[in-house]
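Two proteins were folded this term; both appear here.
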Amino acid sequence: MKETVTQLLESALASLVAEGVLPADAEFTPTVGNTKDKAHGDYACNIALVAAKSAGCAPRQLAQALIDHLPPSKAVEKVEIAGPGFINFFMSTASAFGVVADILAQGEQFGRNNSGQGERVQVEFVSANPTGPLHVGHGRGAAIGDCLCRLLEANGYQVTREFYYNDAGAQISNLALSAQARIKGLTPEDAGWPADGYRGEYISDLAGAYLAGEVVVADDREVTGKGDPDDLDAIREFAVAYLRREQDLDLKAFGVEFDVYFLESSLYEDGKVEATVQRLTENGYTYEHEGATWLRTTEFGDDKDRVMRKKDGGYTYFLPDVAYHLDKWQRGFTTVINEQGADHHSTVTRVRAGLQALKAGIPEGWPEYVLHQMVMVTRSGQEVKISKRAGSYVTVRDLIDEVGRDATRFFLAARRVDSQLTFDIDLARSQTNENPVYYVQYAHARVCSVLRKLGELGISRGRNECLGDLSRLELDEEKDIANQLAQYPELVSNAAAQREPHHLTHYLRELAGRFHTHYNAHKVLIEDTELRDARVSLYLAVRQVIANGLGLLAVNAREEM
């Protein structure tokens, strides 16, 4: 319907240009939005305010001229001028419910489009260090990243999901030393435990597997525990593989899979880090100071230059990141989105600066970053901080075990990425209207229940069969539901373009709310078969859109609750 209003306004603008009211070289694109108050119509446009100066008249005068030149349309019931010159459109009942037939005809494809035209997009998310189980912050990144990938695919993009393993550096050394200490019989309480060692029970499990000669298969490798407590290299290799496998199992339990697993260590093995350093040096952006090598990141907007190679010869963490992103660019990804925790904020400027210093044709502001804030987990109003297995944090597996995958995914994607999130375990487990995922799934289940009841009455009705005269749907609540359904394709498009998956959870909750209100107030299985069939058609459209939206969240559309 919004497209219909836009086309009507474009026609009116063309007529005013032809009559000389608007200059021939003027280009005006009407922006049509939903009204906040239905008393002001279904849609509103401010084009008269935008174009009034070019027309040399007051906005309200131009608004009236536009209304006078609108082509006749059965989709529009009436048009009014509001305020300083807004044009408000009230849509006819027939046009409002046309979306029901569209939804049932398109089924799972409703809301999907091909605006991306197959453009390749790489989304990197989770990218946890292989030093322990995934924590809830990783879980939020997984939920947001995977939903964003699904939204992009729904808009016609070809998406590659990538996980970057930081399998080199100090944290991996600490992991190996922690595992070795456990292998030799030490505990975190002993004086000989590594100062920065990992303390969770998973280290004990890892040590036992190594001593037992367990075979670990993790993505691209198979590693067998050597059993030698003094072979630190063998322990390191086994520990990384062991924890990579554990993280992979957690992600699969969460319904997240990746197309590419990229190892930080490969950047060193393939000489890409050294090649990056050489290129930066040749371009004149490095210098030596106090025994360290620095990169002139201030020339690209950073607040100070950054150390690239430390005095001991080791690289700071952002240098391999620059090499890694150059590799992404060379793989042909012109659009790259990194979904990471807010603690990565400081790396954004310096990585982009490093990429610009390479002079590789990479545009400024590349790659994109979606940075999520922290997650606090509560139970009975108190913060939960410790997982027995991890030792110092709540894991994704903890949440899945407590509340299930559906609630975990929905809750972790339900807030703006730049806002902190409180995960209330009690709420997520509750079967009440306050639990958003239960509320949305219950709406879908209720429609399925209506179909079953029709079957019990001997009435056969297909799930995507549009029956009844939809003009019989005369209630304002029914029109509100139809208008809400009509907004879904635009929401899918905007949520992807803005990189904000949380809009999807908000939309589904609002749609479910409108449905539940109507269901509780009005009977659907009534003797008036024409009205009954029309209402069931509306309900089936609600069911389909909820199923489509939950699918983008990888949350089950339940048929029974």
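Next, the second protein.
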Amino acid sequence: MLAPDWTWWTSVPVILVAVALLWVPGGLLAAGLGAGRWPSIALAPALTTSLTAVGGIVCGVLHVRWDLASMLVVLLVLPAAVLLVRLLLVRAVPVRPSARPPRGRRQHPGGLQAPAAPVREIVIGGAIAAAVAAATVVRGLAHPGDFPQQPDTIYHLGIVRYLLDTGSISSLTADGFNFPQEPSFYPAAFHGVAASLVLLTHAPGIIAVQCLLLVTAALVWPVGLMFLMTTVFPGNRPLVLVSGALASAIPGFPFLLSVWGPVWPLEYGYALIPAVLAVVALGLSQAFGGRSWASAAVLLVVALPGMSLAHTSATFAAAVGGFALAAAECWRFAHDPSREASRKPVRRWLPLAVLILAGVAGLLASTAVAPQGMLETSYDRVDVHRAVTGLLSLWAQRRLPFQLGGAAVLVLAVLGVVVAAVRRQGIWLAATWVLFLALGFLTSFLPGSLTWPLTWPWYNLQVRVQGVAAVYGVPLVAVGGAWLVRAVPVDARPLRRVGRVAVIVVVAGVVALQALGNAYAISRITRFGGTYAWADATKIAALREFSRILPDNAVVAADPWKGGMYLYVVGPEDTLIHTEKSWESDGIRLAAGLDRLRSDPAICAAVHRTGVTHVITGGSTYVTAGARTDDYAGIDDVTVADGFEVVDRAGPYTLWAVPSCQE
């Protein structure tokens, strides 16, 4: 494990700082942009992410180091200044009586009109969501220093340290972690927020990341979801509470993404989708209602960079839902006889026609600009039994109880679709969910040319598409669950009271079963051993011992397929090859021929340029490496090369000193 001295209890201060980091800057900015109290709370994480990501890019362009001083300016001074300007303007321009918002809505003067927030339901639902998420994570991840034994873990942990080392959190150069000679773009908003958390708390990178992920699952996602429900289903107070309680009820999100891959930035980006869609819904409502939608547009423009720079796939997922939402509003506009535009058929149907044309054009453009590799990539097909089982259980864990729990959630979601259709509320959610449900099934059962033109924004990977289905499915599960709870009326008759209690117990049981399934998924991926572990506890302990004897400025060569590159996140030392995807000229040269150091002047020159001082050999090879580990034969063969001396042995590894050489 990384950070062995840390526990979840000692991580509580980091969690609290993460909450403050996500909510204070974004809340100030949202209020300054006229969001109002409840929207400001729900939108705060998205706006903080935008401030961090865009501020990091600006600082990078200006060659200003991202430190506590620059962070203070970007995350506090700037949003506070926006809020101050707004307060001065509001005081200077009094609100006219005719500008009062409609009944049941709250409006910051001159700003966003949003349904009144059901405070009690939000607090109770949020508390349940936080408790379920915290219990899931702590049960599945007994130690915050544990991590998924998956390929991308070192990449995401390493980027956090790389951003801190370089003093730049700019997404324009974040992939310099993999390609230091030619730093390139990588959406690093999540990593920038994690790096900022490290600067504020001095916690190890793994602790900052795990605390940020916990806050994302426990607060960011449920609060955004409840904001969406208050917007799409105004006045339905019980539904808001149920949506918070059921926020973690679908297997595909958020916890599966936190261990599969892992794709932490994608999980973070998906968690921002509901709040962003709520702004879209409010803006469309105000636009079609003949009211000013400027504040909603500004909030949307400011929120989008955070979500997009967390992960571009999240923006595509939000765009599909936003299109469906806009189509529903255009349809309602065309069929509402109370609107003035309804007297003129052309004006009634023009918005929907324009939207359809834009959607077709966007789909064609998306297919045309799809990277060729994304349209040719081939993935193994899942057999029909597993594909159908996955669909019916919403891709729950394979154990039967978890699959039965997933099937129960599916029933609630289908019930939610029926309720939405009958009440004609939230039909766009149902359409979007069904679309991604079908795509999630097809990407596992029939991956190929029929689906790839539609799923390439999610890399044609089934779990990423299924995660989107979960994001849009949870609101429907909440609709179905809330209807089921309210279907049994409460009165003096004991049978009905028992029926209401029984329904609540069943729904609570489904949530508990899903929490156990999610915890099982987390524990299973973090506790692999043997060749299924990229860097298990034995390897990490060995690297920690090496770090104690190595100089802080050491540069160490290691075969990444055997886990030695985790030294980069264990101690202050640098590694020559950060991940198995790191390919730059000197790294390639030394990986293949470091053992020829004394006989090949080109190898010697590469060692001098890179400053390599030590080598790590040994360790088991990750199960999917195959023949790719042959590319690192020059590192492994230093065991029989001239001049390399053993410095230490620990666990499965041996640490060697690189001898001097003449170019």
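The longest helix spans residues 494-526. Residues 490 and 497 are 6 Å apart (CA to CA). These notes refer to the second protein only.
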